[in-house]
């Protein structure tokens, strides 16, 4: 008589997602601290770049684990989408930090500081939501807050770019700041992408 062994679901993915979310929150913390206290900028940017590289490694490990795993705790496509979206958030955090150095920005604007705070707040909501992924409890409220923050970021970015064209005479400065604002706003968009994927996962398993 053959005995069929029940293959357990691989639960390691939850830990890896939590690691990714904590890494994003750490990267966003360094970004907002840099914006609020604009000293030692190059060193802070290097630290953000290191965190982004750590994020790439976490994403690579998730994808590798996915390719090695037969039974997953949530749908495979959701694991792949979630890992990619988490990685995207950190990519744009790093992109903003990098441009502050490359563009030789002397001082952040109030709008840039506010947008960096929104990214930090959104990343905290992501971390809290991801911590509930295994139980699928209380995730929805965090997703709603991420969506609210993204809407606020849209408004701030729109107003900041409008003011840029109205008040700044140097076209090079306009180009620089427009790109920075857009990358800050895109980071909040990517946070919203994470929230949308989490909502989808909850709906599938509720």
Please provide a brief summary of the model:
The chain is 81% helix and 0% strand.
How far from one another are the termini?
38 Å
Largest sheet: none
CATH superfamily, by name, is: Phosphate transport system protein phou homolog 2, domain 2
Radius of gyration: 19 Å
Q: Give me the count of strands.
A: 0
Oligomer state equals single chain
Instruction: Detail the poorly predicted runs.
Output: 1-8
Helix content: over 70%
CATH class: Mainly Alpha
Count of helix runs:
6
Strand/helix succession: HHHHHH
Strand-residue proportion: under 5%
Averaged pLDDT? 93
What is the CATH topology classification name? Methane Monooxygenase Hydroxylase, Chain G, domain 1
Assigned CATH architecture: Up-down Bundle
Class per helix and strand makeup: mainly alpha
Task: Sum up the overall morphology in one term.
Answer: globular
Tally of individual domains? 1
Walk me through the structure.
It is a single chain. The chain has 206 residues and is mostly helical. The chain has one domain (12-205): Phosphate transport system protein phou homolog 2, domain 2 (Methane Monooxygenase Hydroxylase, Chain G, domain 1), CATH 1.20.58.220. The protein has 6 helices and no strands. The chain has helices at 12-36, 41-68, 76-102, 110-131, 139-167, 171-205. It starts with 11 loop residues before the first helix and ends with a helix.
Keywords:
206 residues; mainly alpha; Methane Monooxygenase Hydroxylase, Chain G, domain 1; 6 helices; 81% helix; globular
SSE blueprint:
Layout: H1 12-36, H2 41-68, H3 76-102, H4 110-131, H5 139-167, H6 171-205
Helix pairs in contact: 1-2, 1-3, 1-4, 2-3, 3-6, 4-5, 4-6, 5-6
């Amino acid at each position: 008589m053959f005995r069929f062994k029940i293959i357990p679901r691989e639960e390691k993915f939850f830990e890896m997602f939590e690691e990714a979310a904590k890494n994003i929150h750490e990267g966003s913390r360094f970004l907002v601290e840099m914006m609020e206290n604009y000293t030692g900028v190059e060193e802070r940017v290097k630290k953000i770049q290191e965190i982004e590289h750590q994020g790439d490694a976490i994403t690579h490990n998730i994808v590798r684990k996915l390719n090695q795993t037969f039974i997953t705790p949530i749908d495979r496509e959701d694991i792949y989408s979630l890992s990619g979206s988490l990685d995207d958030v950190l990519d744009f955090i790093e992109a903003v930090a990098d441009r502050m150095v490359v563009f030789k920005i002397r001082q952040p604007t109030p709008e840039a500081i506010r947008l960096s705070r929104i990214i930090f707040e959104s990343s905290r909501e992501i971390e809290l939501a991801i911590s509930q992924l295994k139980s699928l409890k209380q995730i929805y409220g965090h997703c709603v807050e991420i969506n609210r923050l993204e809407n606020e970021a849209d408004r701030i970015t729109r107003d900041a770019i409008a003011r840029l064209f109205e008040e700044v005479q140097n076209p090079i400065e306009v180009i620089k700041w427009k790109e920075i604002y857009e990358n800050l706003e895109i980071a909040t968009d990517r946070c919203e992408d994470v929230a949308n994927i989490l909502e989808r996962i909850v709906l599938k398993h509720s």
